Structure formats: structure tokens, C-alpha cells
Amino acid sequence: MRALHKAARTDPALALDFNALEVRSQKWMLIAAGIDVSGVKATVVAQGLSVAFARVIGVWLDEEDEGMPRTMARLDKELDKGTSFMKRLNKLDGVAKGIRSFFRKASERSGRRVTGRKVAGKTQTSAERPRQAPERCPGLANRHLTVHGRSRNKRNVFVSDQISFDDFLKVDVRVGRVIKAEEFPEARKPAYKMQIDFGPEIGIKKTSAQITKHYTPETLVGKLVMAVVNFPPRQIGPVMSEVLTLGVPDADGEVVLLSPTKDVPIGGRLY
């Protein structure tokens, strides 16, 4: 996939083929969400989703951190931009409807013939028909549309799909103390290798994380962090990552580690 993505950047014909395929894919997704995909406006929406998806994929292919903070931050950014675009598109659509309405009324007032239809044996003109509420082209800002496992509700807040409490209990998040941290020169992007002590029950676990923006090896040693300890190990270059250290993105998408605000015993489980 990485090779295809790279090739598409230098081959316009390949990029156009991929774009056409992705637009169709996004239309299928909109249909699955119950959104009408007919008309020019829906095609513009599908194209915008395709561009956003391509940008997110580009970040994901370079992501090494298991938690994918950069990818998720980019997804949030692209969907926020999509919401802003939809507002402008809806405004433009409203202007177009106003222009069409103006010329239709002007045509009726000038005595030109308007298209009619038979109702109970007589012709009913467009001016005599009951006024119906204008159709709305659903967009990301006013529909609950799931995008790759995440969704935006009516208040424009991104939330994941609902899970049960039993699902939550399956994720074993523990507090541990970093006992060793060092540079990870083999990583494609700046990162640290760490060893975290979770106490006698779990022991010392190895991991890596792209957290060089806000931390140095010296500031990490002795720090309490939160991590998922029951994910299967994952090979990241020469390092076998055994736990997933947790963090949240700052305004620039850089990771800020989750840490208790007070000193607590290591090995404690999040609940």
C-alpha cells in the first residue's frame, strides 16, 4: 500500500484512477448511512471525503506509534475542515435556490406558461401546488455519520461507536513507572525506547513511543504513565513492544502522556 501511495504522487493517471475508485467507495459509505448521493452536491461531498481519506492514509502509512495519535489527530482535523466546507456549500446551495426561485416567480408574473399537472381532473400549476419543505442535502455537520469506526454527533463532537461495560473491562490499563528511556535511532520517525515497571504482578515491559516533542529520556525516567498491558506484542523495528503507552494529542497533534496527578502504587488498574 505504501508503494502504491508513493507511486500515485508521481503518476497522474494512477492518481486519477485511485480517486475515481475512492469516490465510488465514499458514495457507498454515504448510501449505507442513509444519505442520498444523487446530484452534484452529493458528488462534491464524496470527492471531499476522498481527499480527506487520502490525506489521513498518508499520515497513517508513516505512523509507527501503536496508538496512532498523529493519524487520529489528522482525521479530526480533516473532518473539522469538512464541516466548515459543508457550511459554505450549504450557503452556496441556498443562494442558488434563491436565484432559481426569483426567476421562476418572475416567469409566472410575466404570464409565461408554467408546467402543470392533472389534479382531480384539472391542471394544477406550480403556483397552486401545496408548498413543501425544501429538501436538504445531508452533510457531515447534521447527520450521525460513521467514518472508519468514529462518528460525529449533532453537536459536532467525535465519539467512538458505543461499547458495553464488559467490552471496557476487557481493556487492562495499568499505571507503571518508566525505569529506562533511550533514543530509538532505528525508528523512521523520532521516538524513544522505554522500559516500564508495572509491579510484581505484571513485571517490567518494553515499548516505544513517538513522544520526543515534549519529553527527553531524562524527564521520562521515574515518570508514572498509563498503558494497555493486554494487547498482543508488536514488533516495531528491532523492538518488541509489549504494552501501549497512552496519551492524548495537543493542538499540534503531538503526544502528551497520560499520568496520575498524584503518586500512586504501580500496577494499579484503571477503572
What does this protein structure show overall?
There is one protein chain. The protein is of the alpha+beta class and 271 residues long. Among the domains are: 2-81; 166-257, OB fold (Dihydrolipoamide Acetyltransferase, E2P) (Beta Barrel). Helix content is 38%, strand content 22%. It has six helices and 14 strands. It has helices spanning 2-10, 12-32, 40-62, 69-109, 165-170, 217-220; strands at residues 116-119, 122-125, 145-147, 150-152, 158-160, 173-183, 192-197, 204-209, 224-228, 234-236, 239-241, 244-245, 247-249, 255-257. The strands form five sheets. The chain has a five-stranded antiparallel beta sheet. Strand 7 (192-197) and strand 8 (204-209) form a beta hairpin. Helix 1 (2-10) crosses helix 2 (12-32), helix 2 (12-32) crosses helix 3 (40-62) and helix 3 packs antiparallel against helix 4. It starts with a helix and ends in a 14-residue tail after the last strand. Residues 112-116 and 131-152 have low confidence and may be disordered.
Keywords, please?
14 strands; 271 residues; OB fold (Dihydrolipoamide Acetyltransferase, E2P); single chain; 5-stranded antiparallel beta sheet; 3-stranded antiparallel beta sheet; alpha+beta
Note the topology:
Layout: H1 2-10, H2 12-32, H3 40-62, H4 69-109, E1 116-119, E2 122-125, E3 145-147, E4 150-152, E5 158-160, H5 165-170, E6 173-183, E7 192-197, E8 204-209, H6 217-220, E9 224-228, E10 234-236, E11 239-241, E12 244-245, E13 247-249, E14 255-257
Antiparallel strand pairs: 1-2, 3-4, 4-5, 6-7, 6-9, 7-8, 9-12, 10-11, 13-14
